[in-house]
Amino acid sequence: MLMMAVVDLSVLDLSERETREKLSLWDRRSDAMAPLTERQTDSILEIRAAAENLPIPAELPIEDLCSLTSRSLCAPLTAMVPASTEDILLKGFQSLGLENERIETAQQFFSWFSKLQTQMDQDEGAKHRQTRDHLSGFQEQCDAILADVNTALQHLDSLQKQYLFVSTKTGTLHEACEQLLKEQSELVDLAESIQQKLSYFNELENINTKLNSPTLSVNSEGFIPMLSKLDDCVEYVSSHPNFKDYPVYLVKFKQCLSKAMQLMKTHTVNTLQNLTSQLTKRDPAGVPIVDNAFTLYYVKFRASAPKVRTLIEQIEQRSEKIPEYQQLLGEIHQCYLEQRDQLLSPSITSTITDLTTQNNKDHCALVRSGCAFMAHVCQDEHQLYNEFFSKPTAKLDELLEKLCLSLYDVLRPLIIHFIHLETLSELCGILKNEMIEDHVQNNGQTHCEAAQGCCNIF
């Protein structure tokens, strides 16, 4: 045992020596193993200087002061050294809470030492336990926060699922709404189309009511718009024979059209007949036209032309598209020309008879005045016709040719009995130069009927 102790001491001394030798190599001035920089060396010197001037702790026992070197006790000790060893021990026991206890036996010492050691262990572990308690509290808080985060994540997942569900439903609802809007738009268009088509059929009752009204007049403001609407309805129904009630409504609209045209015809014919009747009553004996033609036969008709001009224009505009209006226009032409023939024929015959009596011996003057008179009548009749109508008709030419035959019937027997070539030559010159060339060519279409009569005489 002793040998082992000696060996251990020798080994310890050897290792301590080696350690010192190795430590001396770290900071040797030449070839140092761990050389220090100037800044590190200055720091060590400053630390060393500060350590030399440290005050002696007040709790250091007085006996320990003897172990201090003279270098360490260079500072004054009057304020730091306690009065006696007993004071130092008393303060130590007071700090340990043992100023009232006495240690007399070894057992009491060991008990006190064990208690002191336990208290020191407790004091040393108090900070660790406090730190542990703090860490445990932090851990609990972190666990609570983590639980809250997990709960929040679960809620977010639930909200995400609900959002996806609502988004899907919203998208589906949006598509359904768009489809409904599209169908609504289609239905609205279809309803408008049906309403537009039905509007023509619904007008039948309104038109019937207006036509059957006793206060309806062809000169009222609503008659022409009603007539236009009626034409549109007839045209629309006629162009859609595939409709179910096409035949029934077409017949009813045709009946309304017939009523309207009958009203226009009645108004126009009555106006013309009343004019003729008034003029005939004023001149029952047939005063010659040269005396009062413009007053009796033309001025009256021109004054009454605006009363029927509007209706006649409506009829002429529709006559090219609707056969019924073409027939109505022909009937009005016929009525007008009959009234003019009724007025003019007696007066023209009377005037030609007077001219024959006045120029019984001068046949050239008779031909000249007769042809000029008929040319003037033709011109006036064309102008009067244009006051009533805007479209020409062949019936007017037929009437004027008929009126010119009165002059032809008077002149032809006289000319046939001429035996003097000079007179016949002069008559031919009058007919050719004065009538055909001068009157007809200068006045154009208005004198073509007179020219035809002159040609017949020629």
What does this structure look like?
The structure is a single chain. This protein is mainly α. The chain has 12 helices and no strands. Helix 7 (289-319) runs antiparallel to helix 8 (323-358) and helix 7 packs parallel to helix 9. The model is unreliable at 1-9, 68-81, 285-290 and 453-458 (pLDDT under 50).
What shape does the CA trace take?
Answer: rod-shaped
**Uncertain ranges:** 1-9, 68-81, 285-290, 453-458
Task: Tell me the major beta sheet.
Answer: none
Strand content: under 5%
Secondary-structure element sequence? Answer: HHHHHHHHHHHH
Roughly what is the average pLDDT, rounded to an integer? 77
N-end to C-end Cα span: 190 Å
Q: Tell me how many strands there are.
A: 0
- Specify the helix fraction band: over 70%
Number of contiguous helices: 12
Computed CA radius of gyration, to the nearest angstrom: 73 Å
Q: Which class of secondary structure composition applies to the elements? A: mainly alpha
How are the elements arranged and paired?
Layout: H1 2-24, H2 38-52, H3 85-96, H4 106-211, H5 223-238, H6 246-282, H7 289-319, H8 323-358, H9 363-388, H10 394-416, H11 421-443, H12 448-457
Name its key features:
single chain; 458 residues; mainly alpha; 78% helix; disordered N terminus
